Amino acid sequence: MNWDDIRVFLAVARAGQILGAARRLDLNHATVSRRIAALEQAIGAKLFRRLTTGTELTRAGGRLLVVAERMEADMISARAEIADEATKVAGTVRISAPDGFGVAFLAPRLWRLSMAHPELTLQLVPVPRSFSLSRREADIAITVDRPTEGRLIASKLVDYSLKLYASKSYATVHGLPEDAAGLSRHRLVGYVPDLVISPSLDYADEVSQSWSAAFSVSAAMGQVEAVRAGAGIGILHTFIARSYDDLLPVPFARPIRRSYWLVYHESMRPTRRIQAAAAFIGDLVEKEKSIFL
């Protein structure tokens, strides 16, 4: 198989359309179509179904995707070893993270790494969704669960906690509940349950079995701002809430414990820029571990 054709195949599979893949590869639409046709002829099977909305992998295409991603991973690993990247830290590293950790912790600190390595470009993507490392949607992912599948390297960063908080202005007007039953008499700010990226982030039942939010925000930082504005009582990350003088913890509520993990694909292990970024994030967290619990 021609590696260039495999590279085009991966782009189409990930984009879900030929036009999107062409833009990503900086090729024209006809060239991408021709490459896919050549690959299908070489393999002797249709790899995509053409739909009005784009493309969809066939069963043969799905099988090839597994092999192609393995080939890509081996190419990345070999290129890193041959190039002897230990001589410098350069290139682009895209880091995905939950928005609370990404916005409140990484964004004010991560830029220092690029100051230390002028040829390194950092892309921080702190949004409440999961990214595929095998599909190269991100190089490093900060997750709330240790991955159990795939060729992934995972290391625990830190345990963190969440707790009930209200704004001082809200507490002055409405008071604070003395127990979980008392929450029913208050406005609650929560997350959107069907949009959480992991079951472990669906934690409201650990506060109250009858938790019912009047106002829900899918992003952790959005919940913080809503609670600060007096929208109600919410479950907030303690390392974020503590930085605001206008927020009060609700005394009766016990902390909810979770963990952050740093994850990257096994094929990226020899890559200097990935190791530099991973080590830098680990050092940042270690130095400020006390703020998370």
What does this protein structure show overall?
The chain is α/β, with parallel strands linked by helices. The chain has 2 domains: 3-83, Arc Repressor Mutant, subunit A (Orthogonal Bundle); 84-293, D-Maltodextrin-Binding Protein, domain 2, CATH 3.40.190. Helix content is 38%, strand content 22%. It contains 10 helices and 11 strands. Strand 1 and strand 2 form a beta hairpin. Helix 1 crosses helix 2. The model has no long low-confidence stretch (mean pLDDT 89).
Helix content bin: 25-40%
Q: What is the number of beta strands?
A: 11
Alpha-beta classification? alpha/beta
What count of helical segments does DSSP give?
Answer: 10
Identify low-pLDDT runs: none
Distance between the termini: 52 Å
Characterize the main sheet. 9 strands, mixed
CATH topology of the largest domain: D-Maltodextrin-Binding Protein, domain 2
Order of helices and strands: HHHEEHEHHEEEHEEHEHEEH
> How much of the polypeptide forms β-strand, as a percent range?
15-25%
**Shape assignment:** elongated
CATH class categorisation of the largest domain: Alpha Beta
CA radius of gyration: 23 Å
CATH architectural name of the largest domain? 3-Layer(aba) Sandwich
Task: Indicate the mean pLDDT.
Answer: 89
Number of domains: 2
